[in-house]
Amino acid sequence: TGLGKTHLINAIGNYAIKNNKIIIYATSEQFLNDYTYNAKNQTMDRFRNKYRKCDFLLIDDVQFFSRKEQTQEEFFHTFNELYTNEKQIVLTSDKPPKKIAGLEERLQSRFEWGMMADIQPPGLETKIEIIKNKCKLDGIELNLDIINYIALNMGDNIREIESAIITLNAHSNLLNQEITLDFAKDIIKEQIRIKKETITIEDILKTISKELNVKPSDIKSKKRNKNIVEARRICIYLARTLTQNSMPTLANYFDMKDHSAVSHTMRKITQMIEENENFKIKVDELKNKISAS
């Protein structure tokens, strides 16, 4: 999902190595292939020595154990032996254990024995810092307008954000052209389209401003006039439903206290849509105008 799970699990492994620990890192696919190979060649003792005689076992993307009954059986016993010997087990997944379809209950239970950390999508400020650091590492010069444009329009997947930066730099070198905002918009527009992110927060803000006759600056302000509040709420609701931007990103963009304020706005608008048919029609019409623009 591009949120940094693999990066974090590798960092844990590097930390363990520095402390002279024996680590085994594998993706779920590597574990499965390793198991299949050793089972076929009747060398399961070698397989078990590898995965059970370590200080840290790091398995990436365990959701792919889903419906692999024999692999789950083997991992169950591997988990138990490591746990009994007080070794460290670190697992990553794109969803909580109980939401992994086809994962045995006994494994779901064990996966919840330790600390579970939910990695949230990065907010706008975090994405800006990631872009700045990537540019610094690669020796790429981007002004703040371009950095903000990428952060606002490329969603929350870090790999895709970094890909956009690499693409910009490659085209700049190939064409011997300076990277300006217009140049950046032109080069990465295809990546945005492929991501189904042709609708941006700015597009939504522009349409809402025009249709409801409220200035963009007022929508993004803290003004409490009734018409401005309604426009702001609709804008936030549509930005959340029509784009892949996270609640922290929207909170930052609309100068709100934190993501909980966005969550409150979403609940408020959802309730109004359910209870007021005229309001629902209004929001749907605005959504259609944005999608068609």
Explained architecture:
By secondary structure, this protein is mainly alpha-helical. The protein folds into 3 domains: 5-111, Rossmann fold; 124-194, Helicase, Ruva Protein, domain 3 (Orthogonal Bundle), CATH 1.10.8; 201-292, Chromosomal Replication Initiator Protein Dnaa, Chain: A, CATH 1.10.1750. The chain is built from 15 helices and 3 strands. The chain has helices spanning 5-18, 28-40, 44-52, 69-84, 105-111, 124-138, 144-153, 158-175, 181-194, 201-212, 216-219, 226-242, 247-253, 259-275, 277-292; strands at 23-27, 56-60, 88-91. A 3-stranded parallel β-sheet has the order 1-2-3, with helices on both faces. Helix 4 links the parallel strand 2 (56-60) and strand 3 (88-91). It is globular, with a radius of gyration of 24 Å. The protein starts with a helix and ends with a helix. The model has no long low-confidence stretch (mean pLDDT 90).
